[in-house]
Every structure is written in structure tokens, then in C-alpha cells.
Amino acid sequence: MNIIELQKQKLYRLKAQAMLEYSVFVVCAIAALVAMQIYIKRGIEGKLKETSDNIGEQYAPKNTTTDITNTSTSGQTQSDEIVNVAVPGVPGGINDSYGMPIYSTKSTVTSSANTTRSGSENLGEFEDTLFE
Question: Could you tell me if 37 and 2 lie in one domain?
Fold first, then answer.
């Protein structure tokens, strides 16, 4: 055997080993996905249920009897106070160029809101009235 044939055989063995390593990696990745299939499925189903729960209350006009009362209250109070602009160390505050005191307005706004929803909703036979 000459040197060129030995190098070709060595190169062929390296290619075969690399191909075998890639095959083992792909088989391990597929085995991991198959093993985790139940967890992936449950995760997707859980996200679907969470999304459908966030849609809100369903309403069918022919099948739903509703007795709901919504009560909303809100209020806002505002108080204004006129104060002399005070400077530390200057008695009586600040005066303008004419000797008149400079005043500032201090406003306080308080808001509150309350919403109450009470009542009931009954869903009738869905199949009986769906195609009327």
C-alpha cells in the first residue's frame, strides 16, 4: 500500500465516524422529543385553556337568561389653597417689584371609583334552540 491509499482510507474512516456521530445525535434528539411529548402536549393544552378562559363570559341571546346589575360610583374632590411664596430666611415671603407679595396656588385632587357587578346568568338547552 502506498501513502495515498492510506490517507484515503483514513479520510473515509473520519467521514464515516462523523456521519455516525451526527446520526447518534439526531436519534438522541428525536428520542428526547418523543419522551417529552406528553409534557409538550399538556403545555400546549394548558395555554389553550388559559387563552379560552381569558376570552370572557359567553353569551347566546336565545339560550341565556340574564339578571345582572352593574353599579358604578365615582367621585372627585378638589381643594385649592392660596399660599404666599416663602423663602427661608425672608420674613413675609417674596415681594414683586411693586412691593406686593407673590402668591401661589396649591391644588389637591382626590379621585375614587367603585364598580360592583352582581346577578346571575343561566344557560338553557343549547342544541334545542341553536338552529331555530
Answer: yes
